[in-house]
């Protein structure tokens, strides 16, 4: 058995820990988006594979027997490529997928189908928006330049931002509620825009928004191919035939 773990999320890091503890021969893969990715307890490679063909070639060359897709729910390109390359090479694939966030009492959430739709859901009058979507798609909001945007990024941005009024906070999750309450209050935030990523690492902003009565605009996840989905690390380990392993601290 040789496992390829597609990472870039805190769940992937937990998965890596479980594989390492169970001594499963595995390689961890990062896209290479951040300057200093979190070190993993597994041999790690960094960078794209070169599309479906590149990934299929990698799977063959490295004699990969199982692929675990633990990428972010919005990393749809990688998930689609993994599905296509695994189908082509008949490599078993499982997606570790955290449940989407559900609104609860006290929430003022607007769900929109895509990230692009979040822009139109913002008001026209100037607002103070926490744009909790990473750096990749902030250009979408250039059509609403009247707002003040708070960005929380992993790395200091290089070059000019496409938005005229911004504040940038450099931080890496997981985040806690006290920290996010302070952030929203210090920046006098009136609206939050986020991806419905699910999971615990980025959930604190939603709890903080609930406590402050702030509206949240949430983009739904993209649809992904494949039916073999695990909700937690134990289910992935069972799929690998390692269900007897005690997952210490995972
Ligand atoms: N999208 C988000 O909101 C988000 C949030 C937190 C973390 N992340 C993590 O950041 C990474 C990039 O996200 P994205 O939205 O830019 O992905 P994406 O659009 O789905 O992927 C674009 C390309 O990046 C490469 N890539 C992505 N993940 C990779 C991985 N784990 N290992 C090797 N190559 C990878 C692949 O290049 P090739 O085609 O050349 O193979 C892929 O086709 C993902 O690994 C994801 O887990 C994403």
UniProtKB/TrEMBL annotation:
Highest taxon above the source species: Bacteria
Keywords: Cobalamin biosynthesis, Oxidoreductase
Pfam families named in the record: CbiJ
Functional pathway: Cofactor biosynthesis; adenosylcobalamin biosynthesis
GO molecular function: precorrin-6A reductase activity
GO annotation terms (biological process): cobalamin biosynthetic process
InterPro entries: Precorrin-6x_reduct
PANTHER family: COBALT-PRECORRIN-6A REDUCTASE
Protein name: Precorrin-6A/cobalt-precorrin-6A reductase
Organism of provenance: Sulfitobacter mediterraneus
């Amino acid at each position: 058995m040789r496992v390829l773990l597609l990472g870039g999320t805190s769940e992937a890091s937990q998965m890596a820990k479980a594989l390492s503890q169970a001594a499963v021969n595995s390689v961890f893969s990062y896209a290479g988006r951040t300057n200093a990715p979190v070190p993993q307890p597994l041999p790690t490679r960094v960078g794209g594979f070169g599309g479906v063909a590149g990934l299929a070639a990698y799977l063959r060359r490295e004699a990969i027997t199982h692929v675990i897709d633990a990428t972010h729910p919005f990393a749809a390109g990688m998930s689609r490529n993994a599905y296509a390359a695994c189908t082509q090479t008949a490599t078993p694939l499982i997606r570790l997928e955290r449940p989407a966030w559900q609104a609860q009492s006290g929430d003022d959430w607007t769900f929109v189908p895509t990230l692009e739709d979040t822009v139109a859901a913002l008001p026209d009058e100037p607002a103070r928006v926490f744009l909790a979507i990473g750096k990749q798609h902030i250009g979408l909001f250039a059509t609403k330049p009247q707002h003040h945007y708070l960005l929380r990024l992993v790395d200091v941005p290089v070059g000019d931002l496409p938005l005229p009024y911004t504040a940038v906070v450099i931080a890496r999750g997981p985040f806690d509620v006290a920290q996010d309450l302070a952030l929203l209050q210090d920046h006098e935030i009136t609206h939050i825009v986020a991806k419905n990523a699910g999971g615990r690492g980025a959930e604190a902003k939603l709890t903080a928004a609930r406590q402050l009565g702030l509206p949240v605009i949430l983009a739904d996840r993209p649809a992904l191919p494949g039916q073999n989905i695990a909700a937690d690390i134990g289910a992935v380990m069972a799929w690998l035939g390692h269900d007897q392993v005690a997952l210490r601290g995972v």
